[in-house]
Amino acid sequence: MSTPAGLLAHRGFTHSFLFCVVAALLFAPIAERLHRPNDIRLWQWVVFFGAVIFIHIFIDAFNNYGVGWFEPFSHRRISFNAIYVADPFFSIWPGIACIALIYLRARKPQRKRWWQMGLGLSGLYLLYCLFNKDQINTDVKSILQKQQISYARYFTTPAPMQNWLWFAVAGNDSGYYVGFRSLFDRKKEINFQYFPRNDSLLNPVRGHKDVLQLIRFSQQFYTAEKWGDS
């Protein structure tokens, strides 16, 4: 695929509710046949595959890339921007639990406690991230008003690998103010950097398929720059 097409395909239809249903119904009879004889019924396989895929696409919506829950009926991407796509503080707990489950024997009662710990602590951390998101949004909106920055579009999202430093973007069709806000900052101010949108630079290629796909992926948060003759 081209780069723009690849951006849209990633977390597109394969992260939709329709795919979740279709995949569960497709994989369940295959798994049931491969594992005969067993005491796992077909509907249990359907629930298993459906739950695994649903949890995956549900959690993916909490980071900043967005997921196509409603593909192919709607191209809208769902993105809560609450947790970075690769946050070790979220992933470490199920990782530890997975290692424990590999080494514990199948009938050991401790296994239940390990998977509960792995999923439970990740769930609590996600709630903590949502709390941080709410606090950051309150601070950033107050600062934008104080610094007299008007905007039509706005979002905040965590910087890489953690949930305490946040990236903020606010602007309109003319350009964007970009800055960082930490949960530990005490001053009610942000040193914003302004980026002009330069939308007029796209006029010669505005109808090009790749450009249209990039605009769709960016959800209108983009700027154009001229590099040499490009």
- Shape annotation: flat
Mean pLDDT: 95
Number of strands: 4
**Helix tally?**
6
Spatial gap, N to C terminus: 21 Å
Overall SS class:
alpha+beta
* Share in helix: 40-55%
Radius of gyration from the alpha-carbon trace, in angstroms: 22 Å
Tell me the major beta sheet. 4 strands, antiparallel
| Strand composition percent | 5-15%
- Report strand order across the widest sheet: 1-2-3-4
Q: Report the uncertain regions.
A: none
N to C succession of SSEs:
HHHHHEEEEH
Give a topology summary:
Elements: H1 3-9, H2 17-34, H3 42-60, H4 88-103, H5 110-146, E1 153-158, E2 165-171, E3 175-182, E4 193-196, H6 209-218
Antiparallel strand pairs: 1-2, 2-3, 3-4
Task: Provide structural commentary.
The chain has 230 residues and is of the alpha+beta class. The chain has a domain at 1-80. The chain is built from 6 helices and 4 strands; from the N terminus they run αααααββββα. The protein has helices spanning 3-9, 17-34, 42-60, 88-103, 110-146, 209-218, and strands at 153-158, 165-171, 175-182, 193-196. The chain has a 4-stranded antiparallel sheet with strand order 1-2-3-4, with helices on one face. A hairpin with a 3-residue loop joins β2 (165-171) and β3. α4 runs antiparallel to α5 (110-146). The longest helix is centred in the middle third of the chain and has 37 residues, at 110-146. The radius of gyration is 22 Å and the shape is flat.
Quick overview:
The protein is an alpha+beta fold. It has a domain at 1-80. The protein is built from six helices and four strands.
List keywords for this structure.
230 residues, alpha+beta, 6 helices
